[in-house]
Design a protein that fits this description.
Elements lengths: L1 H15 L2 H27 L2 H26 L17 H12 L3 H20 L1 H32 L3 H20 L4 H9 L3 H9 L4 H10 L3 H28 L16 H9 L5 H15 L1 H23 L9 H13 L2 H5 L4 H4 L4 H32 L4 H26 L23 H18 L1 H12 L3 H5 L1 H37 L2 E3 L6 E3 L8 H31 L14 H33 L1
Antiparallel strand pairs: 1-2
């Protein structure tokens, strides 16, 4: 069974190494390899005691990464449990086969490279330490992978309840927020590396990720029975985790997500929506339907909550780090992440689109109702969060900026997510066919195209806020408070205009090409015109070769990072006179070079995006 599943996974990987998947896999592999090499260097650059402490702590982070990583990038992976439910395979045999196939991939290989740091450390201590380090290294790797599988299974089952769904979204939101502002903790981490605390070193050895180091140190101190006992404990824990994972596979269901639905009378959002848009209104019915979907659909509900929790934890992290300059922007960040996770609405609804396009004249009602529902959910939370963190930041100048940008981004999000859901729809698996994993559905997410669509959404949101930014910048530079506060009505009007105009484009597109859009959902990207004369594909990026995919991924990443964080943002900070360096490279240079370097970053970023567009366009022309 293990041999068969290994060959299946190799075949699946071989046929999927193209497009955005190959780009993400290669970039992730390079990043993981750098982390593995850094772990090995911990056993080389420091003395014995410090190296042991740092290696234990590093493996603790590797264990946490294996637990959190699948929540962010793909759920169960290439081979899913649902593929084997109709076969006469016992859960124990299925768990063993899937576990053997787990080691075929970039993640386990990179982790194995990191585990070699134990052998390198053991070489310092002698022959018997190396003998113990080899099985300890393998058992520790197995435990980390199995623990990841068990935690994913538990969270997947827990996500079928209301509390579990909220908890899963909370975890992912906290992780995403930490990845965005975690560099502010680097000074504390560097101080800890110089002199680790004894309590943290002890905790790192108590965790299963540090047991192999305990066995090595026990042999070095001639405690042979202790070393053997620790290795036996590692082997026993491996067996228990494997049995637990097999039990989780046996109790999992396929298409059923037992989400307890809220009673309408107990839901604040539904009560408010029912008051604003009564049932007698056609748009009111769509609003209520959409709000029920946001709360009851496991995948869409999780994505919306991920955006909300990301904004909340972003504000908490910058507050704990004492970065008052970033505290007022918590609501803005919340809106941006919620827009990203709310994108592709019609794609996540799947074939249910036919209920909207088969009744003449309902396209406009459907689009407007979805826009109102999204604003009802996101606007109150973002406004309250913004007011709270604005008050505690004590930055008076930020009130006009936040209160002007917030309605502009809310309106831009309400219009653009519907616009992109129609014009750049990414087909995913229909809700009734989705697997048991409700954290991330792996292949269902079509990560490459969703990533590009979300990047386009961020760019359009930036352009949508330009009128408001111009008014705010002029008012700040000219020291005219009245002009600066004029940005608030400008932002409000801009948001209304974008909501109306892009919503209009969306429902007109549905009216004209509704059958073609439904064909994209059902056929996975192939569009056939109504008169059957034109057939074209929407999988331009997915059909790129591996080399071009990697090049496009690098260029897009450079374009986004160089244009916005390293170019435009530090220019704005210099213009408004804010003295903060953070991770902005140009601000660490002499004063007379900072602006020139920022402009250089903008030019490089824009050029990268233009080159990406040229590569994709040429590839599309070649396909035609």
């Amino acid at each position: 069974m293990v041999n068969v599943m290994i060959r299946m996974k190799l075949s699946l990987l071989r046929h999927s190494m193209s497009g955005g998947r190959a780009t993400l896999m290669i970039i992730g592999g390079v990043f993981g390899l750098l982390l593995a090499v850094s772990t090995i260097l911990l056993g080389v650059l420091y003395n014995n005691e410090t190296s042991a402490d740092l290696i234990c702590i590093a493996f603790g982070f590797w264990m946490i990464g294996w637990i959190i990583g699948p929540l962010l990038v793909g759920g169960e992976g290439t081979l899913k449990t649902e593929y084997f439910n109709l076969l006469p395979i016992t859960p124990k045999k299925l768990a063993v086969g899937l576990f053997g196939a787990t080691f075929i991939g970039i993640g386990p290989i990179v982790s194995l490279v990191a585990c070699f740091s134990l052998i390198i450390y053991a070489v310092r201590l002698g022959f018997w330490a190396v003998i113990v380090a080899v099985p300890g290294m393998l058992l520790q790797l197995i435990i980390i992978i199995l623990l990841s599988k068990v935690v994913m299974g538990v969270i997947g089952e827990a996500s079928k309840s209301r509390l579990g769904l909220e908890f899963g979204a909370l975890i992912i939101g906290a992780v995403i927020a930490f990845l965005n502002v975690g560099w502010y903790l680097l000074p504390a981490i560097s101080m800890f590396v110089e002199e680790p605390l004894p309590e943290i070193s002890l905790a790192a050895r108590i965790l299963p990720s540090g047991w192999a180091m305990v066995a090595i140190e026990a042999v070095n101190q001639s405690h042979y029975f202790l070393a053997i006992g620790v290795l036996c404990g590692l082997a026993l824990l491996c067996g228990l985790l494997l049995i637990t994972w097999g039990r989780l596979l046996s109790v999992s269901t396929i298409n059923e997500a037992r989400i307890n639905r809220y009673n309408r009378n107990k839901s604040l959002f539904l009560t408010w929506a029912n008051f604003l848009t009564p049932k007698t209104s056609k748009i009111g019915v769509v609003v209520l339907k959409e709000l029920k979907t946001w709360m009851c659909d496991p995948q869409r509900g999780r994505l919306l909550r991920m955006g909300l929790w990301t904004g909340v934890f972003y504000g908490l992290f910058v507050s704990l780090c004492g970065v008052t300059l970033l505290m007022p922007w918590t609501g803005v960040v919340l809106v941006m992440f919620t827009c990203i996770f709310s994108n592709n609405l019609y794609g996540f609804d799947g074939g249910a689109l036919w209920t909207s396009i088969t009744i003449p004249g309902t396209e406009r009602i459907d689009v407007r109702g979805r826009q109102i529902a999204w604003i009802i959910v996101v606007a109150p939370v973002s406004i309250i969060i913004s007011l709270i963190f604005l008050y505690f930041s004590k930055l008076d100048w930020a009130w006009a900026w936040v209160l002007a940008l917030l309605p502009s981004l809310l309106g831009g999000g309400a219009g653009l997510i519907l616009f992109l859901s129609v014009y750049k729809l990414v087909p995913v698996t229909d809700p009734h066919r989705r697997g048991r994993g409700t954290i991330v559905s792996g292949d269902d997410m079509n990560a490459g195209k969703l990533f590009l669509t979300n990047l386009l959404l961020l760019v359009l949101l930036f352009f949508a806020s330009i009128p408001t930014l111009v008014i705010l910048t002029l008012g700040t530079l000219l020291h005219q408070n009245l002009l600066k506060w004029a940005g608030v009505p400008v932002g409000f009007c801009t948001g209304l205009l974008i909501t109306w105009y892009f919503g209009r484009l969306a429902y007109r597109r549905l009216e004209a090409r509704g059958s073609d859009i439904l064909s994209i959902i059902q056929c996975g990207g192939i569009v056939q015109s109504v008169d059957n004369k034109v057939v074209q594909t929407e999988e331009t990026f997915s059909n790129l070769s591996s080399g071009k995919s990697v090049l496009v991924g690098i260029l897009v990443t450079m374009g986004i990072i160089f244009t916005l964080p390293q170019g435009i943002v530090p220019i704005i900070l210099k213009l408004i006179g804010v003295k903060v360096r953070s991770w902005f490279i140009a601000l660490y240079l002499p004063e007379n070079l900072q602006l020139l370097v920022c402009i250089f970053f903008v030019l490089v970023g824009v050029s990268s995006l233009i080159i990406t567009r040229i590569i994709v366009r040429k590839h599309k022309n070649m396909q035609r």
